[in-house]
């Protein structure tokens, strides 16, 4: 006979005297990718046949499989929560693994009472796990000490678990550049650990060919200290950071570099050379910065602009800023990116300049003065990224809750949003300056080498898109 269905809100056990030979209980589970990740995190079992998709696809099973003990552990789940239930103690287990469990398989775990032992209140169970096709994946027996006291407990609600796989998201970004030849990148004054490690990692990933510009003796001493091999990289020897910035701009103007990357010098020092009217890298566009952020709690990457260059942009400057971001979104694969023009509120208020600017930008987009995106604003941050918040406030918009670009009112607000997402939400961060002749990787001194590599990937995509247009 099958066991009675347990109440939805409570766990109630069967004591030894209530257990009968032939009683059964079953549990159904479907294997998800996050189940494999969680099991690996808990156990430390990072067998590449299980957690490395590329390796697994070349193995005997030709796909990612579950840890064997993932299925086996569900037998304990049935015993401890369903039958006999709370108070059951596992004593012995003998199981055989018959075939692998792969992602998407639905496993039915069934335990059946085979024998009872009155002298010690042990119960022997037959156990089987079958997949959605009814094919056995595990068979065996389990011996357990049955509970002797009746227990009825309210079910505990487990916390939700978010798997924040920054490395996986990092690899997805690098995959966008896979197969493209490396670009020549002038690295300006890479004279500390992170600013030298970043371009070298990007070179190893096949993204760039770095041209290291700075005091050669200092760069080589730093490389020797940290075990970096500079044998295959070009070094342009200059005396100091200001001269390095000027040399980098010259290399770009001469066609010897496709992009720039800030090293361990001050941003103003580099940007001063870039915006110089005499010999800089200006175009008809205003320069602006875009953060490309992959946030675990948001279904797609977010572009945030401008959080690094323009302190308090005017309406005219915002036109350039939003157009730069839209153009980058096109390169990243968004055919018609949704742009949320942010403010503190979602209605136009004459006392809040950012709401007036937002309304004007949207109308300019309607009239073709801003092209290639869908604009809406003003929108508060919650309305921009949460469809629930937007519906609660009665906002009907193609952008609200689905934003791909967040246009901030000023540098202060943008910088705060970006840093909060990076440090509190574990966002993968990349950043690039647009509007110059070439993309500029403008890093912070606190940025890791990985952030610099991610930014190089964005710069490489931009440089290749520019080449394609010029061909």
From TrEMBL:
It comes from the Bacteria. It comes from Candidatus Proximibacter danicus. Residues 244-460 form the Phosphate acetyl/butaryl transferase domain. GO terms for molecular function: acyltransferase activity. InterPro entries: HotDog_dom_sf, MaoC-like_dom, Phos_Acetyltrans/Butyryltrans, PTA_PTB. The keyword Transferase applies. It holds the Pfam family PTA_PTB. Residues 29-119 form the MaoC-like domain. This is Bifunctional enoyl-CoA hydratase/phosphate acetyltransferase. Keywords: Acyltransferase, Transferase. The lineage of its organism: Bacteria, Pseudomonadati, Pseudomonadota, Betaproteobacteria, Candidatus Proximibacter.
């Amino acid at each position: 006979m099958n066991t009675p269905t347990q109440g939805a809100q409570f766990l109630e056990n069967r004591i030894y005297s209530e257990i009968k030979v032939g009683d059964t209980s079953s549990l159904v589970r479907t294997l998800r990718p996050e189940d494999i990740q969680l099991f690996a995190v808990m156990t430390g079992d990072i067998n590449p046949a299980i957690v490395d998709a590329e390796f697994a696809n070349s193995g005997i099973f030709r796909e990612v499989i579950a840890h064997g003990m993932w299925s086996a552990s569900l037998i304990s789940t049935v015993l401890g929560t369903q039958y006999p239930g709370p108070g059951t103690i596992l004593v012995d287990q003998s199981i055989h693994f018959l075939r692998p469990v792969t992602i998407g398989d639905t496993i039915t775990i069934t335990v059946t009472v085979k024998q009872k032992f009155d002298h010690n209140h042990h119960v022997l169970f037959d156990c089987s796990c079958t997949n959605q096709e009814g094919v056995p994946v595990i068979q065996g027996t389990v011996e357990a000490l049955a509970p002797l006291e009746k227990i009825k407990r309210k079910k505990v609600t487990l916390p939700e678990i978010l798997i924040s796989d920054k490395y996986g998201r990092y690899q997805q970004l690098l995959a966008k550049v896979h197969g493209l030849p490396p670009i020549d990148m002038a690295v300006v004054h890479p004279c500390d650990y992170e600013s030298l490690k970043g371009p070298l990692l990007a070179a190893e990933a096949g993204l760039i060919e770095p041209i290291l510009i700075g005091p050669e003796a200092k760069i080589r001493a730093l490389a020797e200290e940290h075990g970096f091999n500079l044998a295959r990289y070009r070094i342009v020897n200059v005396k100091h950071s200001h001269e390095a910035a000027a040399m980098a701009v010259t290399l770009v103007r001469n066609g010897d570099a496709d992009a720039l990357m800030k090293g361990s010098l001050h941003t103003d020092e580099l940007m001063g050379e870039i915006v110089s009217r005499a010999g800089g890298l200006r175009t008809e566009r205003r320069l602006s910065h875009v953060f490309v952020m992959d946030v675990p709690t948001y279904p797609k990457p977010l572009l945030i602009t401008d959080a690094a260059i323009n302190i308090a942009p005017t309406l005219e400057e915002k036109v350039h800023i939003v157009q730069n971001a839209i153009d980058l979104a096109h390169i990243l694969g968004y055919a018609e990116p949704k742009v949320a023009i942010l403010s503190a509120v979602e209605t136009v208020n004459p006392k809040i300049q950012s709401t007036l600017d937002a309304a004007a930008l949207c109308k300019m987009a309607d009239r073709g003065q801003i092209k290639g995106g869908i604009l809406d604003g003003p929108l508060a941050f919650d309305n921009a990224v949460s469809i629930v918040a937007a519906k609660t406030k009665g906002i009907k918009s193609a952008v609200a809750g689905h934003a791909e670009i967040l246009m901030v009112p000023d540098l202060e607000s943008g910088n705060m949003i970006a840093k909060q997402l990076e440090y509190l939400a574990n966002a993968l961060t990349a950043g690039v300056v647009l509007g110059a002749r070439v993309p500029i990787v403008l890093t912070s001194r606190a940025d890791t080498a990985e952030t610099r590599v991610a930014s190089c990937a964005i710069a490489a995509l931009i440089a290749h898109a520019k080449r394609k247009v010029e061909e």
